[in-house]
Amino acid sequence: MLNTLFNKLFGQSAASKPAAPAAGPLLTRNDPNAKFHSRFGGLWVDRLDAEQVLAEKLKTDPDVAEQEALIRSFMQNGFVILPGAVSHEQIDRYRAELQAQIDSGNSPIKVSVPVVGPQDKDVIPLHEADILTPLSKILDTYQYIDSAIPMIFNDKVTRFLRAVFEDDIWAFQGLHFERGSTQAVHQDTAYVVSENPLHVCASWLALEDVQPGSGELMYYVGSHRNPDWVYSEKYKHYNHERDAHEQHMGHLEYLHKVSQERGLPLEHFLPKKGDVLIWSADLAHGGSQIVDPSLTRRSLVTHFSPASSEPYYMRFKNPQERQKREVVPGGFTSTLYYPNR
Ligand SMILES: O=C(O)CCC(=O)C(=O)O
């Protein structure tokens, strides 16, 4: 009794020393000795010794153990598919809220639209945009449409990203498509810039059943391990002011060439409504040609990084706007295009 009181007030007595704490899950995030496939680093799944790290994690981390097959497939192929990750009800609610924004005629939401010129895109208000034009991207809808949040941070995606990030999750660039993008095969590392270039994954959520001929998402399986394309001898990302146009075109051609030389299959994604595909930063992917222009191909892309890796754009934002918002426990969003909420 006295002993219990003593312990309560002053902690454990020497006589009843607690057992050594059980080792928690293995975390490798800050390992200074890690070596990666890319000279620009990566997540633990991108380490040269990822198999050994996985073997250790399997002993200490039940979340990794439960997702072992997915993680192995991600390491090998550069993407995973999570069927039925988002319910139809959630998607319908989100689409109704987006439609209400469109119908209002004065929504704060903005759209990136393709234009001809040195800058190949412009950002304009939703009510001025023709969102059915291929390559139109409705930007960061999560900032104004609350029902986007549980879709983006759905359980399957969150569990998977937490396992590969070893961290909380920061969603920082959302793109809603009504039609196929027809975007050339590219690597996100060229355009979606993070302070750690390969600390990025993206999710692609089907907002409807995708039909063949609608401009399906396509990707070279395993292309996340293509040797780095390096801009101006130093950079993973493309900067149109710094890097010659030929470097950019060269990168796009290189992705087909090297993927084909390596014998990588080019697959097309034909998901059902609610399915999600997650790709790793360097997977070569794009939008295939639209064969039937009457078809929509509604989808929501979200880019993520570990909460400890900042998107590069944060550096250029005015300090009051440099905020990441915790929208679910351990899940954050930020935006380049809108004021804070
Ligand atoms: O959905 C597509 O067609 C391509 C999307 C894409 O490449 C991207 O958002 O990076």
From TrEMBL:
**Cofactor(s) of this protein:** Fe(2+)
Reply yes or no: does the keyword Oxidoreductase apply: yes
**Keyword entries, A-Z:** Dioxygenase, Oxidoreductase
Q: Name one GO molecular function term.
A: iron ion binding
Query: Which InterPro entries does this UniProt record tie to the protein?
Result: Phytyl_CoA_dOase-like
PANTHER family in the record = ECTOINE DIOXYGENASE (PTHR20883:SF48), PHYTANOYL-COA DIOXYGENASE DOMAIN CONTAINING 1 (PTHR20883)
Question: Under what name is this protein listed?
Answer: Phytanoyl-CoA dioxygenase family protein
